[in-house]
Amino acid sequence: MMIRVRLLTFGSWFGCGQVTESKTMKYLLIAGEASGDLHAAGLISAIKENDPSAEFRFFGGDLMAKAARCEPDLHYDEMNVMGFSEVLRKLPKLLRNLSKGKRLIKWWNPDAVILVDYPSFNLKLAKVAHKAGIKVFYFISPKVWAWKEFRVRQIKKYVDRMFSILPFEVPFYASHGYDVTYVGNPSVQEIDYALRHLPPAKHFYQRQDIEDDGRPLIALLPGSRKSEIRNNLPLMLEAAKKFPQCRYVVAAAPAVPERYYRSVAQDPGLKLTFGATVPLLKYAKAALVTSGTATLETALVGTPQVVCYRANGRKLTYKIMEWLIKVKYVSLPNLIVNNRIIPELLLHYCTAESIARHLSPLLQPSPERDWQLSGYKTMRRKLGTSVAAEYAAEIIVDVLNGKGEKTESESRRLSHRRRQTPRGRGDSAKNEEKDGANMAKSDKNS
């Protein structure tokens, strides 16, 4: 364990003229996108609770800056790229960013490097930190269970501790001879907090300028990227319009301007909500959701859904995807439960007709609707209620202080203290060994 000694002089602590000595741990965090910024900010706050004298530097965003009370060495806006062509265009910048991260590790010599998802970049820094004898922690595993499984070898070699937020990742890594710790899923606390602070339906309609004419709502979540919106929103609208007894409302992504939605939709009466996804889902009868974290959030709210993902839509693309992706399902609720509780309509299977066919039974009492709601309960049991950032922070600080990881029972007691806010602690998550009686059925055909 590396201990730092800091001398505080008159100029270094706002007029404090006394010279004091303190042991300070240095934490370097790397998050390359908005979701990583969110989760890393929670982790910084939790580390500070366990280690009040902690020092931080980071690649990340505004939320991390607020939590650490310092500016990032590199903002994720300079790091985040999508698609092969954009990677090629921005390759010189990406290489400069990587060099900056390597130099920071060697120069600042932190006690811990904490990586948040973003594997192409972060695993290269993991190698540098490991060779320098620095403890490497990974918070939120890359999706190596879906593709690029070869990265498991790098993780085993360079990462000291992996913290998982999806329970099925534990047996996946175990099959590769690597132990990971499931610390809970941040979305559980985030959604539960939002549900506890939900506005009444009347106020939601008023604030979002939605006329409450008694018709049920269909929530449309076409993704957060422009390409996803362009490919999926028109099909979702076409399917939703087949149910005139319902109204449809789009949950808009904050980073995408309203005019883009309207240009894609070509629907003068289109209703959009910004910053109100959870209330929209809660008051909706059903939802059409582009595959991603939104499927998990929709399930945690308890709204039946159809997963839609249209890209180029060609059969060849689908066959290539089947060959590349190593899992049976693509939506997180199905992966967590290990059963097809939600219909998944991918690429050329995602048409307005197929969406409408699967949506129809969810808008009324039906076995399909009951099946999903039952599956959601099983999913919640599997996710547990541990607060991921606080659980991971406790382990990180203990490892750096030479205490090692707490036993499972000790961590469960520590994680049971608070559960009234998104940062409150909950019971430690339990990996259930069976799905529950109502999930013992065979998969339903989509």
Radius of gyration: 23 Å
- The first-level CATH class of the largest domain is given as Alpha Beta
State the CATH architecture of the largest domain.
3-Layer(aba) Sandwich
Structural class per helix/strand content?
alpha/beta
Q: Please, what is the CATH homologous superfamily of the largest domain?
A: Glycogen Phosphorylase B
Write out the strand line-up for the largest beta sheet, numbering strands in chain order. Answer: 5-4-3-6-7-8-9
- Percent helix, as a range, is 40-55%
Mean pLDDT: 84
Indicate how many domains the architecture comprises: 2
Give a written overview of the molecule:
- This protein is of the alpha/beta class.
- It has two domains: 24-185 and 385-414, Rossmann fold (3-Layer(aba) Sandwich), CATH 3.40.50; 199-382, 3-Layer(aba) Sandwich (Rossmann fold).
- The chain has helices at residues 34-50, 62-68, 84-89, 91-108, 119-131, 151-158, 169-174, 186-196, 201-207, 226-240, 258-265, 277-283, 293-301, 315-324, 332-337, 352-359, 367-383, 388-400, 408-414, and strands spanning 4-7, 21-24, 26-31, 55-60, 74-75, 112-116, 135-139, 161-164, 181-182, 217-221, 247-252, 272-274, 284-290, 305-309, 344-346.
- The strands form three sheets. It has a seven-stranded parallel sheet with strand order 5-4-3-6-7-8-9, sandwiched between helices. Strands 12-11-10-13-14-15 form a six-stranded parallel sheet, with helices on both faces. A two-stranded antiparallel ribbon has the order 1-2.
- Helix 1 runs parallel beside helix 2, helix 5 runs parallel beside helix 6 and helix 10 crosses helix 16.
- 40% of the residues are buried.
- The model is unreliable at 1-21 and 416-446 (pLDDT under 50).
